Amino acid sequence: MTTSSIARGVKGTIVSAVAACACYGLWNALRGWAEDASEAGQGAMGAGWLESAVAGLVGLLSMPLLLWAGMRVLGERGVHLLVLGGLAAWWFLGGRAVEDARGTAATALLLGLFAVLGGLLSLVRTAGD
Asked: Given phi > 0 = left and psi -120 to 50 = alpha, else beta, which region is 42?
């Protein structure tokens, strides 16, 4: 399906925003689970480490899958740069949003920034068009 650059950018922005909100919620919930596991270990060395690692990996690695699937559902192909750039951006921005939470406004700003960046990255068509 061939679409204009504007439509592709809008699709990329929407998919990135939805993926950012979903990954943020998932990562935050898993982080809470890891903190609960750490508290249940009553300060034992290593309590909650595995849960924290799982939370970080799932929160990070679910992003490229959601970006790819979202763009495919909307009929777009050749989104390799969006997927790889989105993963790198989410590692930085998502990590800041989840781990260094400084309030609702800062979190919303980081998620919005990710959505705009995703829209820009989606404008580049790669192999598979």
From this structure: left
